[in-house]
Structure prediction request, 233 residues.
Amino acid sequence: MIKKKNIECKNCALKSSLLFESLNEEEYTMLNYDKNCQIYKRGDFIFHEGNHAIGFYCVNEGIIKLYKTGIEGREQIITFAKEGDIIGYRSVLSKESFCTTAKVISDAYLCFIPAQRLFKLVESNANFSLKLIQQACKELEVANKYITDIAQKTIKERMAEVLLKLHDEFNVNTEGYLNIPLTREELANLVGTATESVIRMLSLFKSGGLIELKGRKIKILQADELKRISEQL
Prediction:
């Protein structure tokens, strides 16, 4: 990681988020006071599952994957964080260790904010507290849906759903490919299956004209058909 001059919170990408828009100038100043901003490269770890949560992170640039480690060290990707997101805050609030590992998959710029700053905002700003609770509840809803999908949907249905979700969350680049660099193994860890199964599904979708592949790059050609598959229609 590379230390970088702290970006002013009032100029940060997160200021436009619903969570931070309720802060006043004094509260922005408080956040700026002792935060620490770093540049992270692909492959760097932000924190590890089981580490003591002494603060949370604001994602100003880049993409972070959050995953749990299962049997034989296998990753299960829970979600991704991108510009405008915060990570680690739920563990801080619950005063528990981090329940996931955060690893950079696209060069990132994050700011670390100590736990006491978050607690101070929760105590002093009711609107911030409410929005923080709402965000935590929304994330829990997404996690519950993921668990249900793993239990009830086929690999083909989950693969289609994952591709659509990645498109919605990260959009596409100028060539029309998904704007997130994932390996086949990472896709498998997201879908919740073996890498070989993901490779077969991608090949099936490609031969059916639903997607286009170029190395790691994926372009969605028939979103409606993928949606039909994902919804078991």
Notes: Helices lie at 25-33, 89-94, 115-124, 126-152, 155-170, 184-191, 195-207, 223-230. The beta strands are 2-3, 36-40, 45-47, 55-69, 75-81, 86-87, 101-114, 211-214, 217-220. The first helix runs from residue 25 to 33. The mean pLDDT is 89.
